[in-house]
Amino acid sequence: MKETFDYEIGAKKSLLSFNFKELWRYRDLISLLVKRDYVAVYKQTVLGPVWFFIQPLITSLIFTLIFGKIANLAPAGVPPFLFFLCGQTFWNYFASCLTATSNTFVANASVFGKVYFPRLAVPISVVISNLLKFSLQFLMLIVVWVYYYFEGTYAIEANFTLLLVPLYLVFMAILGLGAGLVISSLTTRYRDFTFLVGFGVQLLMWATPVVYQLDTMASKNKLLGKLVTSNPMTSILEAAKYGFNCGGSFRPTLLFYSAAFGCILLLIGIAVFNRVEKTFMDTV
Amino acid sequence: MNRDVVIKVENLGKKYHLGEIGSGTFAGELVRFVKNLRGTKSSDLITDNDRTIQAKKGDIVWAAKDINFEVKQGEVLGIIGKNGAGKSTLLKMLSRVTAPSVGSIKVKGRIASLLEVGTGFHPDLTGRENIFLNGAILGMTKNEIRSKFDEIVDFSGVARYIDTPVKRYSSGMYVRLAFAVAAHLEPEILIVDEVLAVGDIEFQRKCLGKMKDVSGEGRTVIFVSHNMGAVKSLCQSGIVMKNGTMDFAGNINDCVTQYLRINTTDNEGDVVIDKKGTGTGEALIKRIQMINEDGNTAESVLYKSPIKIRLTIDSEVDIPKASLDVKISDKDGSILFHALNLYHNQALPLQIGENIFETEIHNDLLPGGFLASVGVHNAATYYTMDYQENIVAFEVIKAAKNAFESYPYEWVVAPAMAQSDWKKIK
Fold first, then answer.
1. What angle do the packed helices A80-101 and A192-206 form, to 10 degrees?
2. Interface pTM, i.e. ipTM
3. Which fold does the domain B270-424 belong to in CATH?
4. Contact status of B187 with chain A (Cβ, < 8 Å)
5. Nearest CA to CA, how far is A53 from chain B (Å)?
6. pLDDT tens, B82-114?
7. Dist. CA A20–CA B325, nearest whole Å
């Protein structure tokens, strides 16, 4: 009798084997996980999704007071509030992608330990549900921008690099997912990384032009300027601000660097994730 | 009928490190990293899966080893074994939750595993939302769930609360909803771990019925349970696991008999015990003998003739009032009756050293195979000193072909507490 089998469960699996077909079959699970993230977070709240707006608005307000009025970090000729809000909105997407995916294995251990589905469905759903959150905040950013545009105190003409925003999102998603996958794989064995992510993301924010511009930093300190330039998130934040004509700069070479960095990171992430997902239940 | 093999397990094994994972220090991790790089493994001890022996740190244990079997299309396979025999490890590997250390499993078709009911239920979501989420986690598509939604709600019997968050559910409602989702899965291969032990009797019956339907539809089922009745009624073939290895495989009836006999030995009604059972161990049952009508030890008793049991007990203490009990179970392990000297307020003194007791139990058992468990307790404190479960197997046999006719008909209410008087011999 000839025997054919659909798949084999063995001890080893090649590092980059990535089963797109299987992941596609579980697309409904991904969409339901997105829905769960979205629905469950604001259950039993009165304001509900309004919280999506309150957090960046208030943070930007504080930034405007401290970094705008006191530290004078906002560029001249640009509404400081818009400058900080823009930085916040884009940075938040990356930060929440990274924090949430880096927690994948530990947070879902009870589900992963009982049932099989492509583990990658969870981090991917996180990236998508954060995209929903981002689009709401992005909408708010546009509303604020339109307000300043018609208010007329500042001359802020948006330029067509704004059309590249989806591309920036992809870059950030890849960077966040890649780093998140690597860290989540490491946390299964070493919980130290959970702590590292907590304040690491905050530290990284200061190394990214969120509350300042790359030019300001580079002109004040050469070494720090170089450090910030080497950060793959820098070019994306700069370009996003440039698109709204509120400071920033558009640097294609640096953007290309970010994309390449992200792709390599994602490949490493998938490889490590693949290796860990088979036996993480024994070490988590 | 030549049916396809849908699961083929070859030389499967899984090892675990005992003790804490990781050496706990940075230096230790570095040393291990360097050792791994150079390909030298730390000198790990490999032990069998006997959990009663205290382990040393760094020991490796094989939770499952040398497992080989095949499951054919439409077969319902039961996996039985004591706690810690490796059943769960095997199921985890089959359902791809964790990878084996050696060997392979080849699978044809979609596997859905139910190692737990309600996996992924989110307490804040409503019953309706959780049906979709849980269904998707178990591998159903949205359309599949939608088409079965009414059936699922109907089966669970919580229609009224379907739009209430599940954290407000009673635990019974919660598991019923969870099982209802799982029961409506339609994979080619279904793996079920003891999830039947939920809900009230009515719901359990419903679940068993559903499981029977599933296997009736020609789907392959692997079923793990401690409920021998359920295993026997659902499965055709079985595997008995013991200490991480396969102890027996074959017809399910033989498997159940074998499983219950793991404790018993074929000593022709004379069993010498060298291990403590459950209890304080102040007194130990050393030997149990079944005595036949001729006064010899034998593993068979004639129909209607009393069951004579002789116990040898080694005691470390003097106890004025000890109590001895015998439980008789059928081959499936269901207890039939219980004979205890305390029911007669009979004082049995236990002295330091060897004590021998004998009892005669009135026998109304029909011909067939039975198991006896024996225990010795302190009647003053109610502590169990030693209890040996299903330690001896015996048979009730017919004296002649027409044995039933040679006895006068006599209606008795099944004696839950059998008449038994103990006498002390030594």
1. 160
2. 0.84
3. Coagulation Factor XIII; Chain A, domain 1 (2.70.50)
4. no
5. 23
6. 777 888 889 888 888 888 888 889 988 888 888
7. 63
